[in-house]
Design goal:
Shape of chain A: globular
Oligomer: heterodimer
Number of strands of chain B: 9
CATH class of the domain at 5-104 and 228-261 in chain B: Alpha Beta
Largest sheet of chain B: 6 strands, mixed
Strand content of chain B: 15-25%
Distance between the termini of chain B: 44 Å
Strand order of the largest sheet of chain B: 5-6-7-3-8-9
Number of helices of chain B: 8
Distance between the termini of chain A: 31 Å
Structural class of chain B: alpha/beta
CATH architecture of the domain at 5-104 and 228-261 in chain B: 3-Layer(aba) Sandwich
Order of helices and strands of chain B: EHEEHEEHHHEHEHEEH
Largest sheet of chain A: none
Helix content of chain A: over 70%
Strand content of chain A: under 5%
Helix content of chain B: 25-40%
Number of strands of chain A: 1
Structural class of chain A: mainly alpha
Number of helices of chain A: 13
Order of helices and strands of chain A: EHHHHHHHHHHHHH
CATH topology of the domain at 5-104 and 228-261 in chain B: Rossmann fold
């Protein structure tokens, strides 16, 4: 048995992977709890998961595609926007739940010890579960319209999921610890998410943005995620490696910032939450 | 023999008057707008190394516990008992000092931590067990024991929100009682349930110590402390003022409280 030493300041470590591994069962149980609770209270169950992107897709297609005539490259607007929405739902859902996870589990934080980082991380995994369902829906929908993904999807899909997850983890770790101290975060978050929606090419293509602004927009990793996944449904995809690289570095930066701030503050959560 | 818990000169600082448990950025900004200088003024500290609104919840606490011992922590309200337990169970870090734990720890500051109203009794057993540090396999092995002890077979698949408060506490305690740690830290959780269930719990806890486990027990219930613990630790204003045989310490404590009343 390893000796546990409790000191005012522990040895500095960005993230204690070994400890997370030791608590893997709790991680699993939290994820399973969230999935269960979410599906239990809704009569529609799994249908509810696909409900949201489908309804959004219909609305966006009518208003932005048909009425505002926003271009969608060589994909039909409905498919174009659904690709964006599938990722967007993952991103916005997981981000808002994970950012709230410290406060919504405060009774537990004040009563038991466990690595708190598993709370936001398990929320992300919970939403990943929804994402998988939605992605299957997307493939089926594309096939119905006569579009099939090319082989690039085998690389784009895992990479895009990793990039999205890193971004959510970074931002939500930062916001969840900030939320413990300043409850304003809770009120600002929905607004913030709405802004990011417009800064992500979900309802419009990146091609309508000027070249310089494209690079700025790539600082939001979701830009590359959505744009690149759309290429997976085209016959002659032309990738933009610079944009992807900017997004990868940006996601890593968010992740580092989130981990750093979280580990700096987490020990005192029980005192102020 | 090497001690299993070693507490060395532990201090814990808290702030008084934080009625609001959290701050809002809005308040901070408003304060800054009114008195921008305040932010840069160096705050005055007194001789104790404290700001005006701070106090020591624990002061120079040191003691050792050896494997198999059961230690009771007693003292009046607000004297640092729960803070000590929170430091020992790693919920909050000490301001100064060091604690070493040489065994698998389970702490029960509240029974039913993390219970989910929407989930059934069965699901909550797995959830709460995991939160308290049990492996899923362990829970599966002890499942029927837990259910028997809590006397809730019939309601296993009912969401706990429909439980009576008695059933709820019985289930929560039963899970806790089947923990299998080397060090068990308990805070006042026996003040629940009816008399016969309390008796059953105490019996269960006694067994726990007999099996060579180490127990730290915080309580106001002197009968329970006497029954469980051979040694006791008396806290007053965050300091240990006595540590020794339970009977003696309880005697001292009751004299102290009587003096206060007189």
């Amino acid at each position: 048995m390893k000796e546990i030493i409790i000191r005012p300041k522990p040895k500095w470590q960005l993230v204690d992977l070994e400890e997370i591994w030791r608590y893997r069962e709790l991680f699993f149980v939290f994820t399973w709890r969230d999935i269960k609770i979410r599906y239990r209270q809704t009569i529609l169950g799994v249908v509810y998961v696909i409900f949201q992107p489908v309804v959004n897709m219909v609305i966006f297609t009518v208003f932005f595609g048909n009425l505002a005539k926003i271009p969608s490259g060589n994909l039909p607007y409905a498919l174009f926007v659904l690709i964006g929405l599938v990722y967007w739902n993952f991103f916005s859902g997981a981000l808002s739940r994970a950012s709230d996870s410290m406060v919504s589990n405060e009774s537990m934080i004040r009563k038991v010890y466990f690595p708190k980082i598993i709370l936001p991380l398990s929320e992300i995994v919970t939403f990943l579960f929804d994402f998988v369902i939605n992605f299957i829906l997307l493939i089926i929908f594309a096939a119905v319209l006569g579009y099939y993904p090319n082989l690039w999807i085998l690389i784009i899909l895992p990479l895009s999921v990793i990039l999205t997850s890193c971004t959510i983890a970074g931002v939500s770790l930062f916001l969840s610890s900030l939320n413990v101290k300043y409850r304003d975060v809770r009120n600002v978050l929905p607004f913030l998410i709405q802004i990011i929606l417009f800064l992500t090419p979900v309802i419009y293509p990146l091609s309508i943005v000027s070249d310089r602004n494209k690079h700025i927009m790539a600082l939001n990793p979701m830009t590359s995620v959505v744009e690149t996944m759309r290429l997976a449904f085209q016959s002659n995809p032309v990738f933009n490696p610079i944009l992807i690289l900017i997004s990868v570095f940006s996601a890593l930066f968010f992740l580092y910032l989130g981990l750093w701030y979280f580990q700096k503050t987490e020990r005192y959560f029980a005192d102020i939450v | 023999m090497k001690s299993i818990i070693e507490v060395r000169q532990v201090y814990k600082k808290y702030r008084i008057g934080r009625i609001l448990p959290y701050y809002t950025l809005r308040d901070k900004l408003a304060e800054f707008y009114r008195k921008p200088v305040n932010l840069f003024k160096k705050k005055k500290m007194n001789s104790d190394g404290l700001l005006a609104d701070e106090f020591w919840a624990l002061r120079d606490v040191s003691f050792e516990v050896y494997p198999g011992e059961a230690i009771g922590i007693i003292g009046r309200n607000g004297m640092g008992k729960s803070t000590l337990l929170k430091v020992l169970s790693r919920i909050t870090p000490p301001t100064k000092g060091e604690v070493r734990l040489r065994g698998r720890v389970a702490s029960l500051l509240e029974i039913g931590t993390g219970f989910q109203q929407e989930l059934t009794g069965r699901e909550n057993i797995f959830l709460n067990g995991a939160i308290l540090g049990m492996k899923q396999k362990e829970i599966r092995n002890k499942f029927s024991e837990i259910v028997d002890f809590a006397e809730i077979e019939k309601f296993l698949d009912t969401p706990v929100k429909h439980y009576s408060s008695g059933m709820y506490t019985r289930l929560a305690f039963s899970i806790a009682a089947h923990l299998d740690p080397e060090i068990l830290m308990v805070d006042e959780v026996l003040a629940v349930g009816d008399a016969s269930f309390q008796k059953k719990c105490l019996g269960k806890m006694e067994n726990t110590t007999w099996e060579g486990r180490t127990v730290i027990f915080v309580s106001h219930n002197m009968t329970a402390v006497k029954q469980l613990c051979a040694k006791c630790l008396l806290l007053e204003n965050g300091k240990i003022i006595a540590f020794g045989q339970t009977a003696k310490i309880i005697h001292l404590y009751s004299r102290m409280t009587n003096d206060k009343k007189a």
